[in-house]
Design a protein that fits this description.
The protein has 226 residues and is α+β, with helices and mostly antiparallel strands. It contains six helices and ten strands. Helices cover 33% and strands 29% of the residues.
Length: 226
């Protein structure tokens, strides 16, 4: 049986740190002390459990009070638990938690080269892309495998889920690899070339006044008129 629980003890917080470390591999995502501080300050710090085993975690913190926002720092699952709908359940739990605290929007960032995340965030959840940043967090190991950390900024309007654009509204598409994470292991030079190529294409299309309206696995990012 799966459950979602607050990480309200030191032991659970340390377990979450270890889980996130195992996913990031060579770079710590967030340390246990910061997790504990966020939890004690009333932020969203939860774990997803399969029976008694923690298999995922999600951490978000409140933004500027006047904006009624939260920023989702990380939501992650062990690889063997992906593709089961558990990630969606975890984000829905986050959504309902935010609603109950009068939060209207949740923001986060993600690597535009990771197709599974683009599909999940833009197609499944209905978040909207609000910006693009070059090397947002600098160069670090783990998820970007030592490459530059370009990111898309997204906003999830909790009462206004975005719908995919109509076909006749799509004016440009931008394809990405099906599995950049595997490519970073097998051929990091090719993965870096994809980073540079996508960066140039993103900047050119956004510079023309287009915006990302959605994502499809077969076509990539769907650009529409702003």
């Amino acid at each position: 049986m799966r459950t979602i629980r607050d990480l309200d003890t030191v032991e659970l917080v340390i377990e979450a740190q270890d889980l996130l470390d195992s996913l990031r591999r060579s770079e710590r995502t967030i340390d246990a002390g910061t997790l504990r501080a966020l939890q004690q300050a009333g932020n969203y710090v939860v774990g997803l459990f399969d029976e008694d085993r923690m298999v995922g975690a999600s951490i978000a913190f409140f933004g500027a009070p006047a904006r009624r926002t939260m920023h989702s720092h990380i939501t992650a699952l062990l690889p063997e638990y992906r593709g089961r709908g558990w990630g969606r359940e975890l984000k829905e739990h986050q959504r309902q938690w935010a609603f109950s605290r009068e939060v209207g929007n949740i923001t986060w960032t993600f690597d535009p080269l990771v197709a599974r995340n683009a599909h999940f965030f833009l197609t499944v959840l209905g978040a909207r892309v609000t910006g693009y940043a070059v090397n947002q967090y600098g160069i670090f190991g783990g998820g970007d495998a030592g490459d530059e950390s370009d990111r898309l900024d997204v906003e999830w309007a909790l009462a206004d889920i975005a719908k995919p654009p109509a076909d006749d509204a799509v004016v440009q598409t931008l394809e990405i690899p099906t599995d950049i994470e595997l490519m970073r292991v097998d051929d990091p030079d090719a993965a870096h070339e994809w980073r540079l190529t996508l960066r140039a294409q993103m900047e050119e299309l956004l510079g023309r006044g287009l915006r990302i309206g959605g994502f499809e696995a077969s076509r990539g990012y769907l650009f529409v008129q702003a």
